[in-house]
Each structure stands twice: as structure tokens, then as C-alpha cells.
Amino acid sequence: MAVRNPLGEFLQTRRARISPEQAGLRAGASGRTRRRVAGLRREELAQLAGISVEYYQRLEQGRANRPSREVLDSLAEVLRLDDTERAYLLRLADPPRNRLAQNVSTEVRPQLRHMLELVDRVPALVITDSFDVLAANVLAERLFDPISKVAQGNGNLARTLFLDPAAREFYVEWDEVAAATVAALRVTAATHPHDRDLTVLINELSTGSVEFDELWQTGEVAVRTHGSKSFRHPAIGILTLNYENLELPGDLRQRLVTFSPDPATATSAALQVLASETYARN
């Protein structure tokens, strides 16, 4: 799915979610009581942001190059963008020109691989910002065994999530994980617009998954550095684990992701079973 004007697309989705009342306009202030569009009209947003309607139309149509920071800040304020959305808007308005250092490194430092081997109490993965799995420790391989390509320390978490039927059973909160994954991929796509592998992945998912395409069209963006996920493992049941998503200095497009249980819980006990030699022999 090649998006020719991501800035305009994003502005349209954000404009659609803000009602006139939320923006401080009186109902019927524009002289028309029946609205044909969801959210703010172009002229309303332009007026509130202090820019001309013609200029705002050019922004949505991709005919205005590199709008000023003042214009972007005004639009962000009216549209009530959060910090992640503001940063995303700035990236779209001023995309990187350098096409060289766009592709992610798939080489994992030997020292990092060794550290994964030493981490034997919690599952841990090394992934890219486009969800390629580069390495996994033994416990992560066992946890992700129901989705085999991830368990083998390769594959792509986003591709598996949307295209592997087993993922719907494996991820207990599939809908939430799916929305968060698409929102994160949008941020990565804006940061690295010349990454051909990422473009191929997004095209593949948008054509192969109705759910992905619908989520992509919402324009949502988000970056989750931590949280919790529940996994349904066929051998030991449901595990609810806290994840930490850590950027790696020196490899800024790689992430170390760890999954840890709350202490003295059923998940903590189940994880010990997963780590045991008895489970390994089975």
C-alpha cells in the first residue's frame, strides 16, 4: 500500500475525530446545522489554527512543502495531538532526505547474543522496530512455540500476528495487540520512509489482512515502551507477562524485549515449569 501523501492522510484522520464542540466552536456556528463530514471541516480547522483555508487544503492534498513549525504546532494544538502524535506530525512534514541508513541491521552483536543466553529466568527477544525477530533466548523460544517462526528466532511478529491463524489463539488480547502493532509500524514508517523492506511488509499486510488495512486507515500512532500481554500456551495455559521494550545504544533500530511475571502468581509458577528440564525433555 503506497501512501502518496501521508501528511494529508494523517491530518484528515485527526480532523475527523475532533468535534466542533471539542474545538470550542458553537453548534451551528458555521451557519449549517447538518454536517456532511465527521469532525471539523477544513475551513474550521484552518480558522482555528490561524492559517488560510487554501493553504490548509494544499497541506491535505500534498501540495505544500515543509510547513513551518509554527503552523504545525498550531494544527497540533487544535487537533489535540499527544506527544507521540506531535512527533509523528513533525516527521511527516520533514521526512529524512538520506536514503542510505534506512534499512535496519539484522546482525545482533555477539555480546548481546551472549547476554540473551545468560538470561534464563524470563523470556527475551531482540527485535527490530519493524518487528523482525533477530534472536531469542531459550525461554522465549518455548513461550512462542505455538507460533513456530517466532520461536525459532526469526520471522516477523507483525506478519505472524495478522497472517498466521495460530496467533489469534496465542494472543489473548489479539485486538489490542493488533492495534498497538499497527500504530507502532506507522511511527517506524514515518521515521524511515525509504526502508524498502518495511514498505514491502506494509504492502503485504494491507493486502493480506482486512484487519490490518482497517487499522492502518485509522491513522493511529503510538509507541509502547512497557505494558502487559497475555499469552495462551497449549502446554501450560495462560501467562500474563509484563514487557519492557528497550532501545539498544549503537543499534537504534533494534530492541531488547523482556517478559517478566508478577511475583508469587500463577504465571510465575507456570514460567518456572516452562524453564524446567522436565519441559525441555517433553
Characterization of this structure:
The protein has 282 residues and is of the alpha+beta class. The chain has two domains: 90 residues, 434 Repressor (Amino-terminal Domain) (Orthogonal Bundle), CATH 1.10.260; 172 residues, Beta-Lactamase. Helices cover 48% and strands 14% of the residues. It is built from 15 helices and five strands. It has a five-stranded antiparallel sheet. α4 runs antiparallel to α5 and α9 packs parallel to α12. The mean pLDDT is 89.
Overall helicity: 40-55%
Provide the number of structural domains. 2
Q: How is the biggest beta sheet arranged?
A: 5 strands, antiparallel
The total beta strand count reads 5
Low-confidence stretches: none
Q: Any idea what the radius of gyration is?
A: 22 Å
Tell me the CATH topology of the largest domain.
Beta-Lactamase
Order of helices and strands: HHHHHHEEHHHHHHHEEEHH
Total helices: the number is 15
The chain-level structural class is alpha+beta
Query: What is the annotated CATH architecture of the largest domain?
Result: 2-Layer Sandwich
Query: Judging from the principal axes of the Cα atoms, what is the shape?
Result: elongated
Strand order of the largest sheet: 2-1-5-4-3
Q: Give the terminus-to-terminus CA distance.
A: 43 Å
CATH level 1 name of the largest domain: Alpha Beta
The oligomeric status of these chains comes to: single chain
Mean pLDDT: 89
